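Quick start: what a row looks like.
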Amino acid sequence: MKRVLILMAAAFCAVVPVSARRPEPGTTTALYKQASTEDFSRIRAAGIEWIEVALNQCYRGVPMEQIVPRIEAMKAMVDSAGLKVWSVHLPFSRTLDISAADDSLRRENVAFMAKMIRKSGLFSPQRLVLHPSSEPIADEQREQRIENAIASIRLLKQEADAIGAELCIENLPRTCLGNTPEELVRIVDAVPGVGICFDTNHYIGGTTGHFMDVAGRRIRTLHCSDFDFVNECHWLPTQGDIDWREFVSRLHDIGYDGVFMYEAIKDRSSQKRLSPEQVAASYAGIFNAIE
């Protein structure tokens, strides 16, 4: 029996190279509501080098004149903690919508997002994550909103190119644009060079495997968290219903070569915010079980 298990493990390793099975871990700065240098240093001390900078921490509920200074302060804290920035999650809200039906509002939102992309250049990110819309979106408006989003993404890709980052559009739940892999692929394929950010806890209309089958190599970055396939939960991976072994195998199948970026915020049992140590333990548990 022991020999059989060893042979099975050897066969798995032969199919899935270690480098492909074990992308480096990362976590979002949104792990903390109001982060400090000490908080970021704790992330690094937990063995996590990569982060995603969540610009909403510098944008939501902040006077316009304070947004840029807060971004600059975030950059100083990241550098002080010795962290590396894999991605920047561009700001989002109900009103900050690049698919807005009102053309003047859409132009205003795109201009602001372009400014945020230029400022994101401070972090030298490899990826930029962008929401294609907010919600709700009525069925009769959907086609026009898709076209609006594509037009906006086309403009914002130029800004991303200018700072050397790959623009990635995130799948979203409910009535948002990109709530199915088919719709999201339609959007990103309309703008060559744009990728997908696969948020594992946003696709509620089907299986994780189906999303990856459809999106394939367009998936260029991740938001990893767990849920119950009913609504987004942002639980720690392995606390919900996603099969993480299968997920990692699918990452290998599509040739994913990026960071295993956590966007998990909440512990399912306690409902409290997660610690960096919990994130690191979850990552080790997933990959140690495979190896």
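That is the whole record. The chain is about 45% helix and 15% strand. The longest strand covers residues 84-89.
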